[in-house]
Amino acid sequence: MTDIRKKHPPKRPPFTRSALRFLARTDVFFFAILWLTVLLVAGTLAQKTMGLYRAQETYFSSWIVWAGGIVPLPGATPVMGLIFFGLLAKLFLQPWRRERLGTIIVHGGALFLLFGGFLTAQFSAEGAMVIPEGGSRNYIAAYHARELAVTDVETGAEIVFSQRVLKDSAPLSDSFFPFPIKPISYFSNVALERREESAAVPDDLHGMARVFRMTDAPREREDEMNRAGLIFQLDGPEESENGRYAIFESMPIDQTITANGREYIISLRKKRTYLPFSIRLLDFEKQVYPGTNTPRAYRSDVVLAEDGREWPARIQMNQPLRYKGYTFYQSSFLQGPAGEEVTVLATVKNIGRLFPYIASIIICIGLLIHLVQRLPPLIGKAALLFLLCLPLGVPGQACAETHDGEGMTVLSYDSFARIPVLHEGRIKPLDTFARDFLTTFSGRASLPDMTAAAWMAELLFDQKAAYRRPVFDIPNPDVVSAIGLAPRKGHHYSFLALSQALRKNMPMLRSFQETPRESLSAAQGQLLDLYAKTLSYFEISRSLSLILPDFVVGDPELAKKLGMAPGQALTYQDMIAKRATLGGLITDSNAPGTGKDDEVLRLGFMLQLFDKDRASAILRIVPPQWNRGGEEWLSPWQVLESGAGSPETASFFETLNRAARAYRSGDAAAWHKETQTAFAESIAMAGQTLTPLRLFIEYHYNQLNPFHISLSLYGAAFMTLLVGGIGLRRQSRFAALVFLCLGALVHFAGLAARIYIMARPPVATLYESVLFVGLIGVLFALVIEWRGRNGLGVLIGALIGATLQFIGTRYAAEGDTMGMLVAVLNTNFWLATHVVTITIGYGCCLVAGVLAHLYLLMRLFAPEETDRLGALAGNILAAGLVALLFATVGTILGGIWADQSWGRFWGWDPKENGAMLICLWLIFLLHGRIAGKLKPVPFAMGMALTTVVVALAWFGVNLLGVGLHSYGFTKGIALNLALFSGAEILFVAGIGLALWRRTAGAREAGT
Amino acid sequence: MRPKIIAFAVLLLLAGAAASYDWWHRPALTAIQAPAQMVSKEGPLAADRVFTDTKGTVVSLKDLRGRVVLLHFWASWCATCLAEFPDLLRAVAAQGGDVVLLAVSIDDDPSAMNRAIDRLVPPESEAPHTVWIWDEGKDISLRGFNVLRTPETVVIDGAGRLRDKIAGPGDWATMDFTALSG
Q1: Cα B12 versus chain centre, distance
Q2: For residues A744 and A770, what is the distance between their CA atoms, to the nearest angstrom?
């Protein structure tokens, strides 16, 4: 036998074939994905300290990552290469069978994506074109690379040397200029220290080197903030010009050298790429939401010039200009030194641009096919269709309005609360305005004994009572004691008490105001916030002071002189006409002491106090006047100050004046009539600038508070299940299902109302995403219940719904939940596609996670129920696949949005990395399960931890405070997140350990 | 091999479709559009008001239909008002009766107003088509039009519609009244 072997050795496959087989192994892919996940987490965390660019260079664009500075580990580039070639090998080596069609297409799409990434990394050029208004540019400046340029002043010709050669000390020379330049020191970020005037300066120093001493400064976290510097030696034909020079980026004065009768400029600058055409900026416009500084849109009107031809074009957010392979995106803007506006256009030339688009289509098709192939035994095709139709369902609502104002004894705030007001860039009912401010002041949207609208009416019409009402919530006892307030039960204090206490502590407050915020303690910061709140409170309370009947004269003689009846209450408007008469009386008056003169002085003093209310600008309750269009609503005082008054505003103010009198006298019928008139007048003035139905729906949305109702219903569903026992009693299961469905219905109606009110998809803020993910989780759980009919879906739905709605109420307590969106987010198309898809992915992940929890619990406490365990495992796999579909497509759509807005598909921004982390984690688990590397229990443990991964990607990355997704920044959740993650890890690890010990015990008993 | 060929064909087709879609939808070189015109130049009909001038003559807005009315709020202590008045008076005179100026003074003291009028229009000259009104009690300015600051001018067209309000001084020398007369 041995001889035969020697004569006919087994035919070994050629090296390439065995290498391909190795690459195609699923376990290689499995570990590669795991390592990529580790790198992604490490690189994202590192951004906190080293900034986005350097973290990207170190972890994601690198071949080798040096762990601890000594151990070489593979970087993301070789790992992604390994994955690419692995997928390629698998595609060619494995037989293509119909049942694997979905997987093959997904892998093909992933190959496309990776190849596109390679092309982009190798061949794309990007930079910024910075153009002042009226100026013209024909080059883009790189973000990171620098160069040394020598420019002939007369001809404009130039020669450049790359940053790399500046770090060597070899002399730089060229026939273009007659003086060799020898770099001495190159600084990535330079610190400039002015030389003392008295100090002797060596003779061989020239230019800026005589003014500044250059030293190395620590690198900035954001690479774009670094200022490069260079010291060089010049040895040219002109003896007087030879010596050492210092130049740095953006030098205010050019460094010129004269040699052989020609003048040259030597400059250090961002690397330039010249274009075959130029762009001139005609006009830059920044639009803000009315009444705010929040940008709504940026726009550059430019003229593109090439070979004597010119085209006008417009570049704005989410609408770039593409020309000759270059794409120009509206990126940001600056204020020039002379106050002129300067536009910043991000410019990209990328031959791999289309790959992500194609890849996303392929991956989406592949995942869908895969799901359809796998789902019938798991959840069902109908469920998939249902989920896919979700983003499309945006219903409209129409409601009728009814009123009954007769015979009232208590003041009704119905009409008053619906008067429109412009606040934070949006027209909203006064009710929302009142709720937002009351939440800011007291931490709640209503007071124990009155609604927000009633409180606002009191604040506007009856300050005496309002100032005594304990409204300000000061939970920190340190703040209370710091300003000498007597502690109160319930931590609520009146404006009167608070303002008196603050006034006594003005020197302390001023010293805090002059201190940088980060140096203040928490209590000191809160005290400053409190001070700002009291100022807003006071300003709002004075909004209508010009029409309040506050001026009363008791003395008949004085009243006669002023042309009014004794005891008659006049307004500031009325008193303006009597000002001159009153002025004369003050001049003639005797020293204070006699009653009459006191009254004269009091009136004069009051007028002066009311004069100060002219700055009151928060309550913008008057729509634009005089057909001027525009969106700028004004406060009553602003109307007078800006000359916008009209007969309509005059009538509106008269109505408010009558309402104030009715409020003060407690005349309910008159109050109702006047507030109704005020509402009608306001709507008539606003004309087409507002939709009354929107106001109506928002008002009722506030009144009903749908998310509180759905939270209660989800809670009721959960409790019913607990009382009845899961799956034990049909009746309790049915009752819980009814509660859950009702909860979902109210939840859905609430979201639909928000869509209508804000006219945009309900996923633009963290708060909204919590609401949306909650609904997705509940709906997905209902599908599981529909298939299984065993109470499992109801339990999951109630758990997810109640938990997320509860988190939502915490966010709602922070104030306005319907803020306007900054320019880049202000696009319905991408909000509706990317954000909705990715949040559906979050919801599905949560369902999969909860299912995995239940699986682990059952495995521990009811291992004999093998059938149910099997079904549960199938559900986990299916939920994981659906989650992967939405997370992947959502992440790629996010990349495409970024490509449309900023010209780059992927920027390794923490939020992007978070989304990718979810995808990688799911890919890792699913492939591990398929490859057999993960047995059912570890797989379920991994899926259970998906909740932690989602929480980190959703909320955790915001804690890093870097990157472009600044809309999601939030504070105060670090502790909750850490507690949640810790508890989850403990839970999963605990169950894993218990199961392992049981298996080990059984094995020992067997042996 | 057949499925692989089909797959590649589908891929190529997709790539082609994406590329052509991208080509057709390239956001290239759209011309700048002129800014949107102001919304309707129509205004609400001015309520009929009756004014009594400094000599006791009664003027009503209804009687002035067919002529452009400038309801101009001013004060003797307002330097801007006094500075622009000569231009305003000239512009009104130049329209030869098509434009009437109702100059409403918000002075507290009528004698101060009269002194200012005497300075603006010396006794030997006259200001044609101009009606001088004292707004005693601020009924016209504050209660009628919410005017607190001067100068402010309400423009009422020939059809008696409130067309515009000029807050601050107006560019009277170049103002075109022809579009308002109808």
Answers
A1: 62
A2: 14
User: Would you call A648 and B44 a contact, using CB atoms and an 8 Å cutoff?
Assistant: yes
Nearest CA-CA distance, residue A986 and chain B, Å: 46
DSSP per residue over B95-110, as a string?
Answer: TTTSEEEEEEE--S-H
Domain boundaries in chain B?
Answer: 50-181
Kindly list the averaged pLDDT for each block of 10 residues, start to end, along chain A of length 1007.
50 73 83 90 84 83 85 90 91 80 88 89 85 91 89 88 84 84 90 83 84 86 84 83 88 86 90 90 84 78 83 80 83 81 88 83 84 61 46 33 41 90 90 92 88 94 93 88 85 92 89 83 87 94 92 85 85 83 72 63 88 90 78 88 89 94 91 94 86 89 90 90 67 87 94 87 80 91 85 88 87 69 64 82 92 91 85 87 89 83 78 90 89 87 94 80 51 77 94 90 76
Residue located via tokens 């069978």: A97
- Topology of domain B50-181 in CATH is Glutaredoxin (3.40.30)
Sign of the torsion angle spanned by Cα atoms A22, A26, A32, A34: negative
For residue A138, give the amino acid letter.
Answer: N
- Candidates A627, A638, A899: best to mutate against B (most CBs of B within 10 A) is A627
- Cβ(A842)–Cβ(A950) under 8 Å? yes
Cα–Cα distance, A296 to A424 (Å, whole number): 12
Structure tokens at A887: 């997370």
What whole-number distance in Å separates Cα of residue B20 and Cα of residue B22? 5
Interface test with A, best of B142, B149, B156, B163 (most A CBs within 10 A): B142
Task: Catalogue the E-assigned strands of A710-762.
Answer: none
- Spatial separation of the C-alpha atoms in residues B88 and A623, rounded to whole Å: 30
ipTM over 0.85: no
Instruction: Name, in order, each residue with C-beta under 8 angstroms of A849's C-beta and a sequence gap of 6 or more.
Output: A943, A944, A945, A946, A947, A950
Helices A766-788 & A381-389 angle (0-180, nearest 10): 160
**Count of Cβ atoms closer than 10 Å to residue B18 Cβ:** 18
- Within 10 angstroms of residue A271's Cβ, the number of other Cβ atoms is 19
Nearest to A643 among B38, B43, B165 (CB): B165
CB-CB contact of A633 with A623 (8 Å): yes
B182 Cβ under 8 Å from any chain A Cβ: no
Q: What is the DSSP string of A317-369?
A: TTB-EEETTEEEEEEEEEE-TTS-EEEEEEEEE-TTTTHHHHHHHHHHHHHHH
Q: Long-range contacts made by residues A554-559, C-beta under 8 angstroms, separation at least 24? A: A554/A599, A555/A595, A555/A596, A555/A599, A557/A596, A558/A585, A558/A596, A558/A599, A558/A600
Residue matched to tokens 């990395």:
A913
Residue A413: how many other CB atoms lie within 10 Å:
22
Q: Give contacts of A654 with chain B, Cβ < 8 Å.
A: 143
Phi and psi at residue A630, to the nearest 5°: 75, 180
CB proximity list for A218: less than 8 A, separation 6 or greater: A189
Calpha distance A711→A804 (Å, rounded)? 9
The domains of chain A are located at 16-94, 126-349, 428-543
| Closest residue by Cα to residue A962 from A901, A911, A918 | A911
- State the DSSP string of A911-977: HHHHHHHHHHHHHHHHHHHHTTSS-HHHHHHHHHTHHHHHHHHHTGGGGG--SS-GGG---S-HHHH
B55 interface with A at CB cutoff 8 Å? no
By the 10 Å C-beta count (0-12 exposed, 13-18 middle, 19+ buried), A298 is classed as buried
Q: What's the DSSP call for residue A622? A: B
Residues 6 or more apart whose CB falls under 8 angstroms from that of A190 comprise A214, A215, A216, A217, A227, A228, A229, A248
Q: How far is A611 from chain B (nearest CA, A)?
A: 12
| A436 and A816 Cβ atoms separated by less than 8 Å | yes
